[in-house]
Predict the structure.
Amino acid sequence: MRISKNGGITRRRREAKILIVSAMLLPVLLGMVGLVIDGGIMMASYRQVYNAADAAALAAAMDKARGKSNADAIATATVFVKEHNKLAKASPLTINIPPASGPYAGDSKYVEAIIGQPVTTTFIHILKSVKQEQSVTARAVAGVEPVSPGQGVITLGSAPKGGKGLQVTGGATLSVDGGILVNAEGGSAGFATNNSVVQARDIQVVGGVNNPDNFKAYTSGDRSPLNTGATPAPDPLENLAAPTTASGVNPTVRSSTVGKSGTTTFNPGIYTSDISVSNGNTVVFNEGIYVFKGASLKVTGGSVSTAGKGAMFYLTSSKYDPASGDPGSAGSWGSLSITGGTVNMSQYSNSASPYDGMLFFQNRDNASDMKITGNSAVNVKGTVYAKSSELSVSGQGDWNTQFIVGSTSVSGQGKVSIKYAGQNLAKANQPFLVE
């Protein structure tokens, strides 16, 4: 069969048209491929940058919460971006303390991380309006904020080599209507041993526990509240200044003598010798701030109560200066011991005071141990704050109290109930992403 000359020309023309149209459509087709492939690459790059910004902001916020300098926090954030998130060529890599923009701008409690990463496209740049070199940028802001479920027990001591943290022994039951936070890092630094039990709504332990089955939900049937390997929490009261005359301390030096019969009434001021209450004594503390300057409050019997809107007892050094709050150096320290008697003590209630809600405040450098033997006759209410101290609690009874201490030891065969819920007390701070 022969093909006519005109038929061959027509076929060649059709083939030429197809080639021309294909050539015209090729950039469009490659652009569509680019949208899929390069778009996927850019989305993956953005996710990596987004995660790096979150991690950098949180890491820097944690450093700030631990009291480190801005320079240290920025250095930590940079390591998280370049090393932990593998963005060695990140640009920009900007860490702002405080944030430079947004609702937290100018607030030094927050950290802003702005992270970028260059991306080289493969196909999409064939479209004339698209550049081959692209970049993705993400921003995150983190800061330290109070945890909403309030803690009834916070042990601040890091105890990196097996320190005590929280110990519940001897068959005791510690029941907390609120949370428990243990900063100790040792393998079993926060634990219930033998047949002892810890109950709470939330339990955060930085280290580990020796028997998870001994940690129970506060409400029967709820999920286990225990979380180990938690992030260390900073001191929620780290910015609470020592009491001074400017913040409500009466500089009058008072007598510490307790009468052998009848009722002895004490007034706010500075006490330089121990107040000891034993069988047969009745002691009333009028409302206000009591400074124990190298002196101690010891209750072994009798009756002790606070009047009016309650009281705060500040346990500090014998070198304490009421004008500045400086504890001085080489002084002796005051302490607290309640091992008997009938005790009804309520926190200082003064909404205009920085010590509103506080019952016992022990100077942060004061490592004197606290001892409270609880029973049906002991009723204390308010925050007990002793950052460097070990608090020993034994016996049984209900406590409308919050303990913020270095470590806690609960012993005995009774049930110690801490009723935190619904009270206006301090909340532990944790780093959170806020933007």
